[in-house]
Specification:
The protein is of the alpha/beta class. Helices cover 34% and strands 6% of the residues. The protein is built from 27 helices and 11 strands. The strands form 2 sheets. Strands 3, 4, 5, 6, 7, 8, 9, 10 and 11 form a 9-stranded parallel sheet that branches. Strands 1-2 form a two-stranded antiparallel ribbon. Helix 10 packs antiparallel against helix 16 and helix 21 packs across helix 23.
C-alpha cells in the first residue's frame, strides 16, 4: 500500500514514466514523485499575458489584481507615507533638493529613519566597489556600513544624523532576530572597476528629453528618406528655435535622469541621481547627409553565436548579465515602442541600457508606421549607435499581443507585406549598424506567409532576420515548427535565425546544426534554465546543484541592487523582477531526478520533491515560496507587500494537471 494519499483520500499510486509523458509531463523518477495536494481555485488571480502587456509597464494592467488594492487606496497610502516622513525626498538625502519647503516629498530624516526597515547584512555594494560615497546616502539599506562623510564644502548640504538617531539605528540593526536567515550578497572582488548605473552605457540625458518633448530635434535625414519613398508625413516641429534652446542649456548643468532603471525625475531638479555633465549643443551628433554604402556599414556574423531573445519584463540588464556568465554571445534589450522613444519617455530609454560585459548588444523597437520608425532610427543613430552604444537594431514584426497588433505593428504586419518592406527601407539607410527584423510564420494558422516574404528581402537593406516557428494565432501554444523554419532558411537571401522551443543542447543539435539557419534565438529556455548556453557550448546535460542555483540568484540580487539601487526602491524593484523570473525558473526539473531525457519545453513539471530542502524550495510552483526565496536574499518584505505574476504559460496542456491526481 502506498504511504501517500491522493486528493480523493484513497491510497496514491505514482504514475509511470509513460503515463507522465503521455499527459505532457516530464518523466520524473518514481521515488521523487508526490501526489498533488488539494488546492484552492486560483483562476481568479491569474493575470492574462495580453492584459498584463497592455497595462502600464510593471503594473500588470490593473493595480488591484497585482496588489489587492485599488489605485485610490494606493494613492492614499502614498500620501500618508509623505506626511509621516516615510517618503523621503531622494534629492534632499543627497543635499540637492531645490524646492525647499515647497517640495512635495518629506525632508524629515529622523522620521524617515524611524520608519525605515533594518539594514541588510553585509557591506554597501557601492562602498565595496570603491565609490567615495553611496549615491543613496541615508536611504541606503546598508547605511550602517557607510564610512564617515568627509567634512567638505560639497558635503555640507547633506542631512546630518543626530547622535541619538545614530545610536537608535545601531541598536535596531543589532537586535536579536533581525535579518535571521537573510544571506549576504556578493560584492565586487576588485574595487575600482565599472559599477552602478552611472557606469552603464547608453545613458539618457535630460536635455534630450526636453528637446524631444518640445519638438526641437530635427529629423531632416529621415524626412528626406520618407520623401524619396513617397511617404506622406504630418510631423510637427516645435516653435521655439534651436538658438533659444542652446542659450538656455549653456547656462546650466544637465543631468541624466535615468538612475534606478528609468525612473523619471522632475525636470527642474538639479539632482536627478545621475552624473553631471556640461552640454555643448554645437558638439551634439548631427550625422552626415551622405547615405552610407552597404560596404561601409558595420556587419555582424550571426552564424554559430548564441542569441538571447529580447524578453519583456524579465529580460532586464541584471538577467542579461547572468546569461553572459553562462556563455551567451548576443544580447538584446527589451522591446521599446518607437513612439515612446520619440516622446522622450525615460522608462522607455532605460530599456537601451547596456552593461560593459555585453560585447554584442542590440535594441529591439516596435512600430507600425514608416514616418515614426524612420525618425526613431535617425534618433538612435545620432544619439546611441554613432557613439558605440548599439551593435545592431531589430524591428519586432512578430509580437502577438492585442495592444501592439491593434496599432498595426507586431504580427499584424504579416498581413501587410508592403508595409513591412516600407518600414525596412525607411530605416536601413539611416543606420551605420546592421538592421534585422523578427517575425512569425504567419498571422493565422492556416495561412503561412513567411516563405513568400523572405525571398523578397534580398534588397531591402536587412543584415538578417529571426523567424519564430509559430503563427500569431498560436501565440505560445503547441510546438514551434522547425521544419518550416529551416525550409525558409534554405531559401533566404540573408542570414536567418530560428526561434522557438530550444530547451536543451539536443534541441540545438537537432534543429540548428547543419539545417540552414545561422543560429537560434533562445527565449523561454533561457528564463527557465539560463545555463542552457553552457550546455550547448559544452554539449552536455548539466545536473546543476541547488546550491549553484542559489548562488546564481544571489548574483542576480547583487546585480539588481547595482542597477536599480541599494535604497528601498531599488530593493523593491530587484525583488519584483526576481519574482517575475522565479515564475519561470521554478519550471526547471533537475537532470538527476529524470527517468527519461531529454525534456521538452512543453513538458510540465509534475509534483515532486528534490534531493534537498533547497532543491524542493527552488522547484515550488507556489508564489509564497518565491517570496520566501527573495526574503533570503533581500530581507523581509514590507508590510503592504503582495505579488501576482505578470505572465502565465499557455504552453502547458490542462490534461497534465490531472496526471497525478
Amino acid at each position: 500500500m502506498s504511504e501517500f494519499t491522493g486528493p480523493d483520500g484513497k491510497p496514491w499510486v505514482p504514475p509511470t514514466a509513460d503515463d507522465l509523458i503521455a499527459k505532457g509531463s516530464a518523466a520524473v523518477k518514481t521515488e521523487y514523485l508526490r501526489p498533488v495536494p488539494p488546492m484552492a481555485d486560483t483562476n481568479a488571480n491569474v493575470v492574462d499575458d495580453d492584459k498584463a502587456e497592455a497595462g502600464k509597464r510593471g503594473d500588470g494592467g490593473v493595480d488591484k489584481k497585482r496588489t489587492g488594492k485599488s489605485r485610490r487606496a494606493l494613492a492614499r497610502e502614498k500620501k500618508q507615507a509623505r506626511e509621516s516622513g516615510a517618503d523621503l525626498c531622494s534629492a534632499f538625502s543627497k543635499g540637492a533638493c531645490t524646492f525647499g519647503d515647497k517640495c512635495r516629498y518629506s525632508h524629515n530624516v529622523e522620521s524617515y529613519l524611524r520608519a525605515k526597515q533594518p539594514d541588510l547584512p553585509g557591506a554597501c555594494p557601492f562602498i565595496a566597489a570603491g565609490k567615495e560615497k553611496c549615491p543613496h546616502g541615508v536611504m541606503c539599506r546598508y547605511l550602517g556600513t557607510h564610512p564617515a562623510v568627509p567634512d567638505t564644502e560639497e558635503n555640507k548640504l547633506l542631512p546630518a544624523l543626530t547622535p541619538q538617531t545614530t545610536a537608535e539605528l545601531k541598536e535596531r540593526n543589532a537586535a536579536a532576530g533581525v535579518n535571521e536567515g537573510v544571506l549576504e550578497l556578493p560584492v565586487p572582488e576588485s574595487p575600482g572597476g565599472a559599477f552602478g548605473p552611472d557606469d552603464e552605457i547608453n545613458q539618457f540625458c535630460g536635455w534630450l528629453k526636453v528637446r524631444l518633448r518640445k519638438g526641437q530635434v530635427r529629423f531632416d535625414k529621415a524626412d528626406a528618406v520618407l520623401k524619396e519613398l513617397g511617404v506622406a508625413s504630418s510631423w510637427r516641429y516645435g516653435k521655439e528655435g534651436d538658438e533659444k534652446l542652446r542659450k538656455k542649456w549653456e547656462k546650466k548643468d544637465v543631468v541624466d535622469p535615468g538612475e534606478g532603471g528609468g525612473d523619471e525625475t522632475r525636470e527642474d531638479d538639479d539632482d536627478g541621481g545621475g552624473k553631471r555633465s556640461k552640454i555643448d549643443p554645437d558638439n551634439t551628433a548631427e550625422g552626415v547627409d551622405v547615405k552610407l554604402r552597404p560596404a561601409e556599414k558595420k556587419t555582424i556574423d550571426f552564424r554559430g553565436k548564441l542569441y538571447l531573445a529580447p524578453l519583456t519584463t524579465t529580460g532586464n540588464l541584471p538577467f542579461r548579465r547572468i546569461c553572459k556568465r553562462y556563455g551567451v554571445d548576443i544580447t538584446c534589450g527589451e522591446m521599446a515602442m518607437v513612439t515612446n522613444l520619440l516622446q522622450g519617455q525615460p522608462a522607455e530609454w532605460a530599456l537601451l541600457r547596456r552593461h560593459p560585459s555585453e560585447d554584442i548588444f542590440g535594441a529591439q523597437v516596435c512600430g507600425g508606421y514608416s514616418d515614426s520608425m524612420s525618425r526613431c532610427m535617425q534618433l538612435l543613430e545620432d544619439e546611441v549607435v554613432s557613439k558605440g552604444g548599439l551593435d545592431f537594431i531589430d524591428i519586432n514584426m512578430g509580437c502577438p499581443i492585442d495592444l501592439v497588433c491593434n496599432k498595426g505593428a507586431g504580427s499584424m504586419l504579416l498581413e501587410k507585406p508592403a508595409r513591412m518592406e516600407q518600414l525596412v527601407r525607411a530605416s536601413a539607410p539611416l543606420l551605420s549598424c546592421p538592421l534585422t527584423l523578427k517575425t512569425r510564420m504567419g498571422y493565422f494558422d492556416n495561412k503561412r506567409v513567411a516563405h513568400e516574404i523572405i525571398p523578397k528581402m534580398v534588397d531591402w537593406g536587412l543584415a538578417g532576420m529571426t523567424l519564430h516557428g509559430r503563427s500569431r494565432q498560436q501565440r505560445y501554444s503547441r510546438l514551434a515548427d522547425w521544419d518550416y523554419i529551416n525550409q525558409c532558411a534554405r531559401a533566404s537571401p540573408i542570414q536567418l535565425i530560428g526561434n522557438g522551443d530550444v530547451f536543451t543542447y539536443h534541441d540545438y543539435v537537432k534543429n540548428v546544426e547543419g539545417q540552414g539557419v545561422a543560429t537560434c534565438m533562445i527565449a523561454r529556455g533561457a528564463l527557465i534554465k539560463p545555463w542552457i548556453f553552457t550546455e550547448i557550448k559544452e554539449r552536455r546535460d548539466w545536473d546543476i546543484s541547488a546550491t549553484e542555483r542559489l548562488d546564481m540568484l544571489k548574483d542576480y540580487a547583487a546585480f539588481g541592487l547595482e542597477h536599480w539601487g541599494a535604497d528601498a526602491r531599488g530593493v523593491a524593484n530587484t525583488r519584483r523582477f526576481l519574482l517575475e523570473w522565479l515564475s519561470f525558473l521554478h519550471r526547471y526539473v533537475p537532470v538527476g531526478l529524470l527517468e527519461r531525457m531529454p525534456v521538452g519545453i512543453h513538458q510540465r513539471p509534475p509534483n515532486y520533491v528534490g534531493r534537498s530542502d533547497l532543491e524542493t524550495l527552488l522547484s515550488s510552483p507556489n508564489s509564497e515560496d518565491w517570496v520566501k526565496i527573495t526574503t533570503m536574499l533581500l530581507g523581509p518584505t514590507p508590510d503592504n507587500f503582495s505579488f501576482q505574476p505578470k505572465h502565465k504559460s499557455n504552453a502547458y496542456s490542462k490534461e497534465s494537471d490531472q496526471v497525478q491526481g
